[in-house]
Amino acid sequence: MPFPEEYFDAVVSVDSYHYFGTDDLYLPYLAPFLRTGGQLGTVLPGLTHEIDGRVPDHLRHWQQDFHSFHSADWWARHLANSGAVTVTRADVVPDGWRHWQRWEALGVRTAPPEWRAHCAAQAEDLAADAGRTYCFPRLVAYRTGG
Ligand SMILES: C[S@@+](CC[C@H](N)C(=O)[O-])C[C@H]1O[C@@H](n2cnc3c(N)ncnc32)[C@H](O)[C@@H]1O
Prior knowledge:
By secondary structure, this protein is an alpha+beta fold. It is built from five helices and six strands, in the order βααββαβααββ. The structure holds S-adenosylmethionine. Residues 14-16, 19-20 line the site of S-adenosylmethionine (SAM). This is Methyltransferase domain-containing protein. It comes from Actinocatenispora rupis.
């Protein structure tokens, strides 16, 4: 990024950190752009608990990005492992799966036609899951160094 170190007071990522932030080397790369004490905040699709191996049968329409979904505890450890931040919050959005389902239901009616089947499939899995697996972890951390 074309910014000097310590440039940002805060970095916020909504619904996208899992696309790149699972890389063990990503936060060590990103953190220097935050001033010491500056905050990182993210909310992202994830899991109530870690799943090793087979995706549960009722999540029939899972796609490859499922494997980038993790629990709030997993993310807290992952961020802390960078050595660059201290995590101050790691929990889940209350009823996050219901918000997710509303979003997919909206997509079924209003998304570009080529996305609608995907929205319907995801809404079906969210209904079958009813919050057992899918959720929205949210994390806040501040830069300590590293
Ligand atoms: C679900 S959208 C969320 C967009 C926006 N943050 C919001 O809440 O409306 C996911 C975003 O992540 C971006 N994205 C996906 N993979 C990425 C990557 N490897 N690096 C940077 N951005 C990525 C996509 O371009 C998309 O804009």
